[in-house]
Amino acid sequence: NATWAGRLPASIGIIPIKITLHELEVFLKEKAKLSSTEFPLGISYETLEIIHPDLEVEMPQWLILGPRESGKSNFLMNIASNLLKKDGGIWNIFTISLRRSPLLNIHSKDQNYHVAGNLEKSVEILTDINLKLESTMESPNQQYMILLDDLGSLFEPGMEEIVNQINKILPKVTARRDVHLMATGLLDELRSQIGSPIVRMLRQSRTGLVFSKDTSELDWLGVQSIPLEYRKMDLPTGRGFYVSKGRLILVQTPIVSKE
Question: What pairing do the DSSP bridges indicate for beta strands 239-244 and 113-116?
Answer without folding.
Answer: unpaired
